[in-house]
Task: structure prediction
Amino acid sequence: MRAMSDDDRRPPEAAGDLMTSDREVFANHMALIAEMTREFSASRDSQTVSRHGLARITTFLGAEASSLFLIDEEGHDLVCAACFGPVDVTGLRIPLRKGIVGRAVVLNKTQMVRDARRDPDFGGQDIAAETGFVTKSVLVAPLSLGDERLGAIEIINKASGDGLFDEHDRTLLEVLAGSAALAIDNFRLTQRLVEQERSRHELTLAAEIQRSLLPGEAAPDYPVHGVNVPARLVSGDFFDVVEEAPGDRIWFALGDVAGKGMNAAILMTKAASLFRCLSKTIASPGRLLAAVNAELCETGSHGMFVTMVAGFYDIWSGRVRIANAGHEPPLFLPAGADEFLAVPALAPPLGIADDIVGWDGYPEHDIDLGDGALYVFTDGLTEAYTEAEGRATLGEDGTRRLIRDVRGLPPPQRLAAMLDRVRRPDRPLRDDVTILVVEHGGPR
Amino acid sequence: MTVDITSRGGARVAQLSGEVDLERSPAVRRALLDALGAKAPLVVDLSGVSYIDSSGIASLVEAYQTARKQGTAFVLCAVSPAALRVMQLARLDKVFDIRATLDDALAAV
Result:
């Protein structure tokens, strides 16, 4: 940035003969345009650049004051983002269709007014009354990119010459306004990118917290194994395994929150925490689900609900007791059999209404596992695409076939093989996929 | 996806059509909650819905909860076999009042 010279401040009219004056004006204008464009394009801070830019333009045009108005986010008002001159009007808000500035913005056309006080749209009387600053001549250039209106630059009171702005001033301000509009647009784009980056970072942190809530990998002979693969960064599915200490039971739960994204992830975290906490005090899966339901209904969640299966595996009897709240039916495959036993939901999902079930909670099912295995999964598995293209999904029959195909593998490899069937490198997952398998595990 | 709200007798009828998925369900939610602002019984006609996912159902649940809180009737009708199956599997048929036709629904409110 070079220092201001006397030449910059000299009004164009003060030059000698016409030819020399025109050439000088042109050269001065080009120098200012080049300088301002450079400055605008290098700007990282809109405020400083606007204030400095306004000061530079105002001085160059030999005017008294100037201001930069931008349309607010709602698109209703023009707000003074920066100003230069004897009166500070930064933050001043005027309705979009009011005043000479509003006219320039709405018409997307430069306004050159000889005596503002005679203009029917003039709205600066209050400022004059409050501060004694009198507005006489005004030059306003709109800031726009094509049809998109951003605001306007207003230059007030030409102090030199006859006190009126001329065509040279108009052209110069229009060129500078074009360059400023680009700079403002760039700046906003950068801000949006920074904001996006910040959100992405927060989402990554949330995803890390979510992952930390999932149980770690269990030993191959442990009775309960699970996997969770989010379709996006955060998941609306969850599973958890809690061992009674000291005890005979391993509690497990798997849930799916309706909807996706951050709000589903937050509700998922709440449901998972409630399960973990309540599984230590409530002995029945049906009553545990009723308690989670009552909790979720009490706080409300804009219609978002949770389908959930909760239960425990009794390590001595080899029996499982589960309750299903509106969830995809878990499938039990007895040892040596090819037919599954499905455990359908007998009551609706959690978080919809608190009077859905009675005091004894959600209906429970008892299953003697023997050497068979119980599979609990979300619809992210059944509705997953199985091809690189098209709408073919795994479906219910496909899920049953898949389980039969992998039944001979140890649990960790079995779950990995199931995931492999629906996870394609060339196609993102449609929905979060979560699978839980419960079986005797290890020698008896 | 469109939502048309009309008045039939003392009730309001919301006609949904097209796919109600994650992207479109916020508009459905808004329209149903606005319609419930009239405090009149609301019938949601799903005959034109080709697909509804869990976020779409969540919009219906929120409308159901709002209607229940303010004591107005909320009835679904003409649910497609596919959507009905999803609702039955999740036992949402125990939550929603579901009628076969619009006339049945209007008679029920």
Observations:
- Strands of chain B lie at 2-8, 11-20, 42-52, 74-77, 97-99.
- Chain B touches chain A through 20 residues (CB under 8 Å).
- The first helix of chain B runs from residue 25 to 36.
